């Protein structure tokens, strides 16, 4: 008992010196220590309290550092509606900047159209004479040059015609010999002038018959080839592609048979329908834009023809565009859209369509600032050729993000989510 009392007294003296020192130095624990002594708190309890205070101080320090880290992580986002990006970050993200400029903008009407063959360069090849198909020389879709053989046909009529030509040629030869002899005899005074005149008439008639026979032969062979007996070749009238073939070996054909269709696809026609209310806005020679959404292709041309009559079924007028098709992209039968410019005006502020983004249900653009980008709502006007008129929100000379603007939209969304948490 006396031993425990001695320990308590020693502890009290020690704490008294500590408390005095703390009070002397302005320590904040003097009152608490006195209260602990009055309550018979042990030295161990005081030690635990001091450790707890130290841990609280470290916790406060850690909390402050965490707060600083949070502020730094959000440093990529400026005030609400903006982004902080350096030039290097903009270049790394592949964001292209464009200047807001004035530009002529056109208003278009869109009309349905279809690609067709150029009827002036499309031939339905038919046999000039009835016969039997011996050989077919080309296949469907094959390219041919002018004069290339398409098929070989055996025809009795051709055999008779060639015999007629040969006989006419022999008669001309005989008549010319007789004429030369009679003319010499008449000059020598041996024969009468009547015999000479008769020989000349006979020669002229033979030459006329030969010319007629040759003319018939050209309907079968425009190149004037002699041919082989009863055979003749059906030939391409011009360079093009075999788009239809209706012959097989052994088939009997006549002058009415549609054997082949050859089309020059280097140019095509685009036909489109014009309603009566739009007729006054469509003129021959007017520039148009032809687009095929399925192909992702677009071409420009001019209106070549507008019909004077309305179709009985559609009650619309038909227009035609001559379109270059050297690459073969525009295939007959393809449905297209024909856009015709009806009016044009000068817009003060125009940006590429890729600059426009919807941010929080507002049509906006990202305007370049000294720190990065500012999100700015805009009011749009006419769209034309991949550009958009901005009627309100921008002025000429400002710079906006074009290609890659969706990256900025995504980054802005991430920043909004971080602030929400």
TrEMBL record:
<dbReference type="InterPro" id="IPR006143">
    <property type="entry name" value="RND_pump_MFP"/>
</dbReference>
<feature type="compositionally biased region" description="Basic and acidic residues">
    <location>
        <begin position="60"/>
        <end position="78"/>
    </location>
</feature>
<feature type="domain" description="CzcB-like alpha-helical hairpin">
    <location>
        <begin position="160"/>
        <end position="216"/>
    </location>
</feature>
<keyword id="KW-0175">Coiled coil</keyword>
<keyword id="KW-0862">Zinc</keyword>
<comment type="similarity">
    <text>Belongs to the membrane fusion protein (MFP) (TC 8.A.1) family.</text>
</comment>
<dbReference type="Pfam" id="PF25973">
    <property type="entry name" value="BSH_CzcB"/>
</dbReference>
<protein>
    <submittedName>
        <fullName>Membrane fusion protein, cobalt-zinc-cadmium efflux system</fullName>
    </submittedName>
</protein>
<dbReference type="GO" id="GO:0046686">
    <property type="term" value="P:response to cadmium ion"/>
</dbReference>
<dbReference type="InterPro" id="IPR051909">
    <property type="entry name" value="MFP_Cation_Efflux"/>
</dbReference>
<comment type="function">
    <text>CzcA and CzcB together would act in zinc efflux nearly as effectively as the complete czc efflux system (CzcABC). The CzcB protein is thought to funnel zinc cations to the CzcA transport protein.</text>
</comment>
<keyword id="KW-0813">Transport</keyword>
<dbReference type="GO" id="GO:0030288">
    <property type="term" value="C:outer membrane-bounded periplasmic space"/>
</dbReference>
<dbReference type="InterPro" id="IPR058649">
    <property type="entry name" value="CzcB_C"/>
</dbReference>
<dbReference type="Pfam" id="PF25975">
    <property type="entry name" value="CzcB_C"/>
</dbReference>
<feature type="domain" description="CzcB-like C-terminal circularly permuted SH3-like">
    <location>
        <begin position="350"/>
        <end position="409"/>
    </location>
</feature>
<feature type="coiled-coil region">
    <location>
        <begin position="158"/>
        <end position="216"/>
    </location>
</feature>
<dbReference type="Pfam" id="PF25893">
    <property type="entry name" value="HH_CzcB"/>
</dbReference>
<dbReference type="InterPro" id="IPR058648">
    <property type="entry name" value="HH_CzcB-like"/>
</dbReference>
<dbReference type="GO" id="GO:0046914">
    <property type="term" value="F:transition metal ion binding"/>
</dbReference>
<feature type="domain" description="CusB-like beta-barrel">
    <location>
        <begin position="267"/>
        <end position="343"/>
    </location>
</feature>
<dbReference type="Pfam" id="PF25954">
    <property type="entry name" value="Beta-barrel_RND_2"/>
</dbReference>
<dbReference type="InterPro" id="IPR058647">
    <property type="entry name" value="BSH_CzcB-like"/>
</dbReference>
<dbReference type="GO" id="GO:0016020">
    <property type="term" value="C:membrane"/>
</dbReference>
<keyword id="KW-0105">Cadmium resistance</keyword>
<dbReference type="InterPro" id="IPR058792">
    <property type="entry name" value="Beta-barrel_RND_2"/>
</dbReference>
<dbReference type="GO" id="GO:0022857">
    <property type="term" value="F:transmembrane transporter activity"/>
</dbReference>
<dbReference type="GO" id="GO:0060003">
    <property type="term" value="P:copper ion export"/>
</dbReference>
<dbReference type="GO" id="GO:0015679">
    <property type="term" value="P:plasma membrane copper ion transport"/>
</dbReference>
<feature type="domain" description="CzcB-like barrel-sandwich hybrid">
    <location>
        <begin position="121"/>
        <end position="264"/>
    </location>
</feature>
<feature type="region of interest" description="Disordered">
    <location>
        <begin position="57"/>
        <end position="78"/>
    </location>
</feature>
């Amino acid at each position: 008992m006396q031993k425990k009392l001695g320990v308590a007294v020693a502890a009290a003296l020690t704490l008294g010196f500590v408390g005095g020192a703390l009070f002397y130095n302005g320590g904040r624990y003097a009152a608490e220590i006195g209260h602990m002594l009055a309550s018979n708190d042990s030295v161990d309890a005081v030690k635990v309290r001091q450790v707890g205070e130290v841990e609280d101080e470290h916790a406060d320090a850690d909390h402050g550092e965490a707060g600083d880290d949070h502020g730094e992580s959000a440093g990529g986002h400026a005030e609400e509606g903006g982004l902080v990006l350096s030039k290097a970050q903009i270049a790394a993200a592949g964001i292209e900047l464009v200047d807001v400029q004035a530009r002529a903008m056109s208003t278009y009407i869109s009309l349905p159209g279809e690609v067709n063959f150029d009827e002036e360069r499309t031939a339905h090849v038919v046999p000039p004479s009835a016969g039997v198909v011996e050989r077919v020389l080309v296949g469907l879709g094959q390219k041919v040059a002018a004069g290339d053989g398409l098929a070989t046909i055996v025809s009795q009529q051709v055999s008779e015609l060639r015999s007629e030509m040969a006989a006419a040629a022999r008669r001309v030869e005989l008549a010319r010999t007789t004429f030369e002899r009679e003319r010499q005899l008449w000059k020598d005074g041996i024969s009468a002038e009547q015999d000479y005149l008769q020989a000349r008439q006979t020669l002229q008639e033979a030459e006329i018959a030969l010319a007629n026979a040759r003319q018939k032969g050209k309907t079968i062979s425009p190149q004037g080839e002699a041919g082989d007996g009863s055979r003749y070749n059906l030939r391409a009238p011009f360079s093009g592609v075999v788009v239809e073939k209706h012959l097989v070996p052994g088939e009997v054909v006549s002058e009415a048979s549609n054997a082949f269709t050859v089309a020059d696809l280097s140019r095509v026609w685009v036909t489109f329908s014009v309603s009566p209310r739009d007729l006054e806005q469509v003129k021959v020679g007017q520039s148009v834009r032809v687009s095929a959404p399925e192909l992702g292709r677009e071409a420009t041309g001019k209106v070549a023809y507008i019909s004077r009559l309305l179709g009985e079924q559609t009650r619309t007028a038909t227009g035609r565009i001559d379109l270059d098709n050297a690459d073969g992209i525009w295939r007959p039968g393809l449905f297209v859209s024909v856009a015709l410019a009806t009016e044009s005006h000068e817009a003060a502020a125009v940006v590429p369509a890729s600059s426009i983004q919807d941010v929080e249900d507002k049509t906006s653009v990202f305007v370049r600032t000294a720190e990065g980008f500012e999100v700015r709502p805009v009011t749009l006007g006419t769209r034309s050729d991949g550009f958009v008129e901005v009627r309100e929100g921008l002025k000429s000379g400002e710079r906006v993000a074009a290609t890659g603007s969706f990256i900025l939209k995504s980054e802005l969304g991430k920043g909004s989510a971080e602030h929400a948490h």
